[in-house]
Amino acid sequence: MLQYIIRRVLIAIPVLLGITLINFLIIKLAPGNPVDMFINPNTPKELLDTKKELLGLNDPFFLQYFKWLLNLLQGQLGYSFSTYAPVTVMIGERLGPTLLLASASLVVGLAIAIPVGVLSAIRQNTKFDYLMTGLSFIGTSIPQFFLGLGLIYIFAIQFRLLPTGGMTTLGGSGGAWDLIRHMIMPVFVLGIVIAGKKVRYVRASMLDVLQQDYLRTAQAKGLHPFIVTNKHALRNALIPIITVVGMEIPLLLGGSVLIEQIFQWPGIGQLTIQSILSRDYPTLMGLNLVAAFIVLVTNLFTDIFYSAADPRITYS
Amino acid sequence: MGLPEYQLRDTSVQPVVYTDHVEAEIVEPGAFKQIWKRFVRHKLAVAGLIVTVLLILTALLAPIIAPYNPATVTNSFSAAPSGQHWLGTDQVGRDVLSRLIFATRVSLLVGFVTVALYVTFGTLIGMAAAYFGGWLDMIIMRITDMFMAFPFLMVILVVISVLGSNMTTIILVLALFSWPGVARLVRGSVLAIRQLDYVKAGIALGYKSPRILFRHIFPNAVGPIIVNATFGVAAAIMSEAGLSFLGMGVQPPTASWGNMLTDAQSLTVLTDQPWLWVPSGTMILVTVLAINFVGDGLRDAWDSRN
What we know:
The complex is a heterodimer of chains A (316) and B (306). Chain A has 316 residues and is an all-alpha fold. Chain A contains 13 helices and no strands. Chain B has 306 residues and is mainly alpha-helical. Chain B has a single domain, classed as MetI-like (MetI-like fold, Orthogonal Bundle), CATH 1.10.3720.10. The longest helix of chain B has 37 residues, at 96-132. Chain B starts with 30 loop residues before the first helix and ends with a helix. Classes of the chains: A mainly alpha (316), B mainly alpha (306). Chains A and B meet through helix 1, helix 6, helix 7, helix 8 and helix 11 of A and helix 5, helix 6, helix 10, helix 12 and helix 13 of B. Chain A: InterPro entries: BPD_transp_1_N (IPR045621), MetI-like (IPR000515), MetI-like_sf (IPR035906). Chain A: It is found in: Cell membrane. Chain A: Its main location: membrane. Chain A: Residues 95-302 form the ABC transmembrane type-1 domain.
């Protein structure tokens, strides 16, 4: 087990290096540079050149990459081109809200998907099963931004029950309830999308387990159906779900761009859009890198949890 | 369910991608007829197929069906639906229904071309990785790891902002970050099929690698690829809509369902002009839903265990 973990971490290192290189390449493809974009065209050319030299924009590609990588190893992501604040600080401020939104949505999504998927499997081919399968398809097929706008229209504008966006009420006293009120709609949208996908996995996994011999044995022993379902079947059915939940992380982080834009949520998705608009390359590089790092780490944990949850799996 | 072995794990980045059936099945003569028979029994899949065909017809016949030119500015601005403009006009005065019809072209084009590109590429790469194995396999799998670690929509947005947004860029960038899922899927299938006796027989007979790969292995791996590609079309359409919604996709004046929803971010449009955003959002939902149903039907039809 320990050997497996060490091997997985070692494999992750070249992958991480590759990610930094791809990331750097993407940004370097950009035409023009921030100096030309932001400084008054009447500024003397010498001044511009000094500025470029200062920002290292004239260095050859690999030198720029290695400089950036060296800084990275020291936990430095450079400075934002637009606010001149350290990128680490800018991302640090935004990471919390995104992770809060993502984890709450994951919890809500699973809280819907697991019971619905289990019931669908137990009552396979009933009206309930068909209805839930149909709904899960709608959940995966509805665009997040359309659902989000629809919810804002109904709950924030027509009924004035919830705030249209943001994380806290401006000038409000704050508090947990205020935060929750702002979270309801975005969490619901993301939760529905997650639940739509996961219901089908839970159902399939549960159907798989329900056919196993050990389940028949449990039933034959005369155990209460409730215990058979929830203890013997569900626990085994949820093992494959661990992997599937791990797959959700890159989608949640990527999807934050849309959901945070619609609900004005101050997370890394919104920061991405702002940085794109201001051509703030260091921040964009940092954002992609931090997000990719989170994905790699969660993948690693998913694999480890998986092998811990299912002792039948051996890794050579 | 597939083995939980690391490489076989489905870490595909596309939204709905079911890759749990990678078992090899021998495709017998007449198999496609059987698959079709099983497909038509799936009512929702048939409904999805009909809607998809209608959408394709709409896209092809757009200039004939659309009552107005989608870029022509008429003399009414932000007008509510009426006999003249069934779905009203937008803020510039263009006919919403006509734009909706022409946008079908954009969505379907992006969906099908993106998928054709990355499925072809991913299949070739996946087959090569599985068949040749060794260091080539190791390197290819690590490269897929790299691409899949980037959060899908976020990195695509950044790349498009760097390269400039037009339809070609959108298609290429979506494909660039979508092929690893297919490569992994195909690799898993080929690894399973390679163990079968008939492939070993082919190797023993001294057939060359390309012949074994394309004539013997590929036909048996094609089922999961087609299913994955179908869900991929739906996912690509959704991604394009999301990008265009954010203003980083198809640019106005070209109509796209996504960019037609962009205006709804302003509260006045959202509240007072629902005809500007409800129809295009509904079109995305219906299209993606229809294609996903087709994918589901194909998956059930190919999986002879049902």
